[in-house]
Every structure is written in C-alpha cells, then in structure tokens.
Amino acid sequence: MGAVNGKLVYLKDVADIHFDYEDPSYMARFNGERSIFLTVEQKEDKNVLDIIDEAIVKIEGFKSELSPGMELYYAHNQAESVRSSVNSFILNLIQGIVLVGILFCWPLVLNRAL
Fold first, then answer.
1. Which of 35, 75, 104, 113 is the most buried (most CB within 10 A)?
2. Please, what is the average pLDDT of the chain?
C-alpha cells in the first residue's frame, strides 16, 4: 500500500480484508425482467455532449460480446435531455431577441405612420 518512515505499510495493517458472499438486498428489473444496471458517470471537467458519441460506440461494440439471450438497453441517456434543454434555450433566446426587436421597432413604425 505504501511506506512510512522506510517501513512498508500493508493493507492488512489498516483494514480487515476477507472474501465473502452476500445475498442480494434488491433485485434490479427493467421492463419486468431481471437486470443488471450499469451507471457511467462523467468526470467533473468533461461535457456530456462531447463524450456521449464515443461512449455509445464503445457500448455498442460490447453488445457483440453478450451471451445469447442477453440484451443491452439504455434506461437513461442524460445527453438527450441536455441536448433538448440546450436546444430549448437557444429557441427561447431567439424568440426573446425577436420580441425585443419588435418592441423597440414598433414605436418607430408608429411615428412614421403618424
């Protein structure tokens, strides 16, 4: 594990180590079938939109290694919701700019009409 004052410190010196088996405390299910959930989390300094395509390529490559009868599904893809939120923000921003432009130009149009 490391050394302190020139003496090796082993993991057994600071922790109890043993192999054990524990009955599952819950059963994961997806669409009513027994499942295994795998969670992938992004690093703090990474953007989910930048890494999702590469992650999907790697995950899809893993599908060929699954045993017969096993299937792989995406229960939640955060990139889809992030992409949707960004698109909604951009649309709202454009609408806001157009409305502000109309509100500022409207008095000019009224003055010329009079």
1. 35
2. 81
